[in-house]
Design brief:
- By secondary structure, the protein is of the alpha+beta class.
- The protein contains 21 helices and eleven strands.
- The strands form four sheets. A four-stranded antiparallel β-sheet has the order 4-5-9-6, with helices on both faces.
- Helix 17 runs parallel beside helix 19.
- About 40% of the residues are buried.
């Protein structure tokens, strides 16, 4: 058989052979080439969808403007991103890569303080995960395919429509066939200029019928108020990095020791048990950084420590807002029940230049209680004004 020149036709390369003088065609799927490459590089899954509007997402967000208007403005808008074809007229399809961020176990001392996905976020740190994505983008470029990541595109909905994930009642997406069906994943949608056939969507909710809505019951602040219904303005993760300068009083106790993000609903979900019960290798790099992320380190850190040891992995909080980190750490100390933190809170109340940090330190001293905590509050009584004075008086009344 003699091979003729290969021609590209949208989703496939066509190789034309002759057999007994008659031509015939064998389709070599570009889709499968891309999927195979993604799996070869270490992505857990890859699926394809079109650039049509994500109408279900638009309807859901638009139906609750009081909860979601904050995330749709002139500078950033998921509603704008939910119509990728209109926003990017050159785009013909979307590939959604699934990144497994729970390949190794997490240090016990960071559990309950940081959402796991943030502990290994490498978008700024440029580590192994970043290299994996760059290698895939280089592969696309070698194939002559234009690709673009649009952070406004709703990633979870794109993953479900690309058939690589199903929804949980906690609004997270769970791997459809990979990762033992768990939700410890990041969806990475890439717009492509190649017209590739979409995979079968998996937009359904796929929770066990008798799970008892454990995720909803586990949500400390009531942000999850019904199956697949979440109020982000009550979410712990939202308040750790986007909330007010000081955590609202009614949320302080429910937020517990979470400093950045939250995994409460994912930890409670039975769909995640098969993955979390595995004997996974230790994450040496993260264990080496754990001391830099302790509550004491956060409360007393200087700007150099923040920018070089914390911010590269937890960049939703601006580099100019070290006070938010320290306020979160002070709240977590108060909720820890550990009186060993009283000297740290005493020092912050006396020396922090940030009113919100001093105010939260006063609240936490009142929460921990005891003679030393009360003495620290009494010393500052009458020396403060405004919010800090209010928190000192409230703490002394507890």
């Amino acid at each position: 058989m003699k091979e003729r020149p290969r021609c590209r036709e949208d989703a496939a390369f066509c190789v034309i052979y002759t057999y007994c003088g008659a031509p015939y065609t064998v389709a070599m799927s570009l889709k499968e080439d891309l999927r195979d490459k993604a799996l070869e590089l270490g992505f857990a899954a890859a699926g394809f969808t079109g650039v049509e509007p994500l109408d279900l997402y638009v309807r859901e967000v638009a139906s609750r403007p009081e909860m979601y208007d904050w995330v749709n403005n002139d500078f950033f808008s998921t509603l704008r991103g939910a119509d990728p074809g209109a926003k990017h007229p050159w785009a013909r399809s979307i590939i959604v890569l699934v990144r497994n961020y729970y390949r190794m176990c997490f240090p016990a001392e960071l559990e309950g303080l940081y959402g796991r996905c943030y502990q290994v976020d490498e978008r700024k740190a440029r580590g192994e995960e970043h290299a994996r994505l760059k290698a895939f983008l280089d592969f696309l470029k070698e194939r002559g395919i234009r690709a673009f990541f649009d952070e406004e595109l709703p990633a979870r909905m794109a993953a479900a429509r690309a058939g690589v994930a199903t929804y949980g009642r906690n609004c997270f997406v769970f791997a459809r066939q990979a990762m033992k069906g768990s939700s410890w994943l990041e969806s990475i949608p890439l717009l492509l200029d190649a017209a590739l056939e979409p995979d079968r969507p998996s937009l359904e909710e796929d929770c066990p019928p008798k799970c008892g809505d454990r995720c909803i019951k586990a949500c400390p602040t009531g942000a999850l108020y019904a199956p697949m219904k979440m109020n982000p303005l009550k979410c712990i993760a939202f308040h750790t990095y986007y909330g007010a300068d000081i955590t609202p009083l009614e949320l302080r106790k429910p937020m517990g020791t979470w400093v950045y993000g939250c995994d409460a609903c994912q930890d409670a979900c039975p769909r995640n048990r098969a993955w979390t019960r595995q004997d996974l290798p230790a994450n040496g790099d993260l264990e080496a950084r754990a001391r830099d992320l302790s509550l004491r380190a956060l409360l007393h850190m200087d700007q150099e420590h923040y920018e070089n040891r914390v911010w590269p992995h937890f960049f939703y909080i601006s580099r100019s807002r070290i006070d938010r980190w320290q306020m979160n750490a002070a709240r977590a100390m108060g909720n820890s029940g550990d009186p060993g933190y009283i000297p740290d809170l005493e020092q912050a109340l006396e020396r922090s230049p940030h009113p919100n940090v001093r105010a939260m330190s006063a609240w936490s001293l009142g929460r921990l209680g005891g003679p030393r905590a009360r003495a620290a509050l009494e010393r500052r009584r009458g020396t403060e004004s405004g919010l800090v004075a209010e928190e000192i008086e409230r703490a002394l009344q507890t």
